[in-house]
Specification:
Elements lengths: L1 H20 L6 H6 L23 H9 L4 H8 L3 H13 L3 E4 L2 E4 L6 H23 L1
Antiparallel strand pairs: 1-2
Helix pairs in contact: 1-6
């Protein structure tokens, strides 16, 4: 059973990576209109000292996850470039955002509820196939 669990974890992560890489370009309003839940997996009293819901920081992270360019984010929220940059700087300072080459990427997992359901279905199918291979 440990072997099955290990394979499930490995392939589930691969499945997540492959799925996230295949995201297609969508409109900002479509992304923002999806439902997102916020969870912190932690032990102890170590909560973030910023409110991600304030100043649309959560939405900025979500849009960057979907590779939306900064100029489109700025236009969508009607923000001046320096205002958006100050929010980006804050997210970087608090380790919610990292810069890779010239692109910003959230340093946390982001997925819509719809994405989660799709990934769950895909991973269950993959898991079943792996178990069948192991048992044969």
């Amino acid at each position: 059973m440990k072997l099955k669990s290990c394979f499930f974890c490995m392939f589930y992560m691969i499945e997540l990576f492959c799925y996230s890489q295949s995201q297609f370009k969508v409109k900002i309003s479509d992304i923002i209109s999806k439902s997102y839940n916020f969870y912190m997996i932690s032990k102890g009293n170590n909560f973030p000292d910023i409110d991600l819901k304030k100043d649309s920081l959560d939405k900025i992270l979500i849009l960057l996850h979907y590779n939306i360019p900064l100029n489109e984010i700025s236009d969508f929220f009607h923000l001046k470039n320096d205002t958006l940059q100050s929010r980006i700087d804050l997210l970087q300072k608090k380790s919610f955002l990292k810069k890779y080459n010239k692109n910003f990427k959230p340093n946390l997992m982001i997925m819509s509820i719809e994405d989660r359901l799709i990934m769950k279905k895909q991973s269950e199918k993959t898991f079943t196939q792996i178990v069948e291979l192991i048992e044969s």
